[in-house]
Amino acid sequence: MNESHQSDPLRRARLRWRARRGLLENDLIFERFFGKYERELSDAEVGALIRLLDLSDNDLMDLLLARKEPESDLATTPHLVRVVRLLRSA
Description:
There is one protein chain. The chain is an all-alpha fold. The protein has a single domain, classed as DNA polymerase, domain 1 (Orthogonal Bundle). Helices cover 66% and strands 0% of the residues. The N and C termini lie far apart (32 Å). This is FAD assembly factor SdhE. Belongs to the SdhE FAD assembly factor family. Pfam families: Sdh5 (PF03937). It is found in: Cytoplasm.
């Protein structure tokens, strides 16, 4: 059986480690986000979060601070749009 993100402490730790960024502002947002929402994230939302983590620090910060909205394929992915909304509310 394949464990989900929520039930696997090692997967949660890896995701938290991957979310550590070069910009303190991003780190603070992710810490609050994980504190509020980590246990309720679906596997699809975790996948969307991983896609966001592939962005550069500055592009990610612009999304998190609502300076920019998700573009192209990111904008058409409902789970990604939800994760951005949750990150912004954290």
